[in-house]
């Protein structure tokens, strides 16, 4: 990037970024998933690498074409599918990391059982219900466990706003609930956030206070986020 102060400010640091969207199998051919493109997470990994960090990108269902530039730049890419796989990969890498950023869209629920064979339709009988169970909250666990002392834990919140509150109000509640050091709140829906090249985030601290705002390309937003994160890192 063009930021002169950014060069090398993550040298000597190890960071983990999760990106993409997890998929939970319904049967061998179907899954529950979401529309995350993974591009903000990949931009975070690339930006951290450019700033000198050793970077692990835990990539949930991302196309090779999306991760190839990061890989070429020296980012270690670990491909995962389900939330359970993502959780294992993130926690393994987080044990040695100064920063963990949960940019992945994690499925909140998964089918409680996954049959080995394809579920067949019985004509005229209507759909069989799919029983779901809640997934572990990877971010909240990381914030509670602090797998390495002094580790900075960062989450994302994709919000639309609804009758219960605005994007920012939902973000504040989430920041307080999760226990992460920083939460990047991102307005989604109607051409914003998911699947588009630009992004707008408001950075909140663990108390839900606004600490920064950033808008621009996903790379520019990524660099703004790292700028805030570096201020929260203990010195080496
Ligand atoms: N997250 C996670 N594990 C989950 C669900 C979410 O680690 N099982 C993380 C996401 O990676 C993101 C943050 O938590 O960094 C917020 O995700 P979000 O879906 O916005 O929050 P939820 O707590 O799931 O709340 P809701 O979907 O109801 O808004
Ligand atoms: Ca969720």
From TrEMBL:
| Catalytic activity entry | N-[(R)-4-phosphopantothenoyl]-L-cysteine + H(+) = (R)-4'-phosphopantetheine + CO2; (R)-4'-phosphopantothenate + L-cysteine + CTP = N-[(R)-4-phosphopantothenoyl]-L-cysteine + CMP + diphosphate + H(+)
Q: Please give the Gene Ontology molecular function terms for this protein.
A: ligase activity
DNA/pantothenate metabolism flavoprotein C-terminal domain residues: 10-230
Could you tell me which residues belong to the region Phosphopantothenate--cysteine ligase? 15-236
Q: Where does CTP bind?
A: 108, 118, 136-139, 156, 174, 178
- Which pathway? Cofactor biosynthesis; coenzyme A biosynthesis; CoA from (R)-pantothenate: step 2/5; Cofactor biosynthesis; coenzyme A biosynthesis; CoA from (R)-pantothenate: step 3/5
Which cofactors does the annotated protein need, by name? Mg(2+); FMN
| Cofactor: binding details | Binds 1 FMN per subunit.
This molecule's function is given as: Catalyzes two steps in the biosynthesis of coenzyme A. In the first step cysteine is conjugated to 4'-phosphopantothenate to form 4-phosphopantothenoylcysteine, in the latter compound is decarboxylated to form 4'-phosphopantotheine.
Q: What is this protein called?
A: Coenzyme A biosynthesis bifunctional protein CoaBC
Organism the protein comes from: Isoptericola hypogeus
Gene field: coaBC
- Of the intact sequence, the residues represented are 187 to 422 of 422
